[in-house]
Amino acid sequence: MNVKSIERKGNEVTVVVEIDKELMESGVNKAYMKARKSIQLPGFRKGKAPRKMIEAMYGAHVFYEDGLEEIFPEVYDFAIAKQDFKAIGRPNLTDMQISDDNIVTLTLTTEVYPEVTLGQYKGLEVEKAEVTVSDEQVQAELDRMAQNVASTETVERPAKMGDTANIDFEGFDNGVPFEGGKGDNFDLKLGSGQFVPGFEEQVVGMSAGDEKDIDITFPKNYHKELAGKPVVFHVKLNKVTETIVPEQDDEFAKDVSEFDTLDELKADIRAKALENAKKQADSAFEQAAVDKAAENTTVDMPKALVENELDIQMERFGYQLQMSGYSMEQYAKMMGGDVSTMRNAFRPAAEKQAKISVTLEKIAEVEGLTASEEDIEAELKSLAEQYELDVDKVREMVPMDELTGSIKTRKAIKVIVDSAIPVTPKTEEKAEE
User: Fold this and answer.
1) Per-residue pLDDT tens for 343-386?
2) Does a structural domain hold residue 126?
3) Cα-based torsion angle of the residue sequence 404, 410, 415, 417 in order, rounded to the nearest 10 degrees
4) Is residue 52, in this structure, part of any structural domain at all?
């Protein structure tokens, strides 16, 4: 093979390569051997037609396209992979010329990794919030724990906020029942905000056996069939259940924890909340530092990198939806759009992440960061423990370039974060000054 020319314009490279006759012939013959099984010519049994007969009938170059596919890995390795640019994805074949003496010349076009110019990425001033845990936060956790061990009992009195009302209901739009507006034996926690605004407040005061019509208007941001519409719900209250929350004292602490006193439990809640808050603050600081380093980077981002990142984000979101019982199409319809509009909504985040990725790759290159054998083995062991697999199995499953890339990326992040300077966030008063 012979690379005749390489031309780069921005993030696009065009390569013209001449294919050896012998290599092209081997590809064409492989294509013929695969195709002949389904070809039948007059006078020959199916799969037995000679290549020359097929070429005479369908054209001398009938197998060239499939033949090129057979040898493409070799062509790619020679014409693209060994060059001083890094291609993104599979190149496009934009032209194929076959000379009279059957020499094939290909024109391949591919997007390539961009030229990245780093800005400041060390010594960045990054806001980091002071970590505190308020008495209100501790009390909120105590209240949650108390609710978890609360008991219930049916009461013979009018319903009040905080009670659970078991109701039958049916909604009517101009006297006609509407889809999704009916339920039987539904447990409604009054004050939870489960229903349309104004509904729960009108259940308050009802007693078991009471029936009434409740007038409400759906919010304007509700789904379009009912958005902004006034409707009537006919409601029957079956029973009222009161939640009995235990008193928060030393006995309560013994029941819900390993501690003997309420003060000890409070101290433990505060310590754990503080540890969690510190982790969140560290994570936010790290992300802010990386974001700032990427903002300082100058790069003309290739479309292919953004599209690749979009694919990743859409796939991840699709999996989350699937776990919730929805398809991407169903969710998009619920949001008043389609999958295309959803993809566009993810685009800004994908563009940002793509820029972060090339920034971290460039930092790893500039800093001479590598993935040592020890790093690789530690990463494989960590993945094996995470997914409960054998290390050798993980080694087979995970592409080595992805593994080493992940290690170098984390090291690049460490370079940014370790040198970053935490600063106290500006208060609103200071910002106004």
Assistant:
1) 999 999 999 999 999 999 999 999 999 999 999 999 999 999 99
2) no
3) 180
4) yes
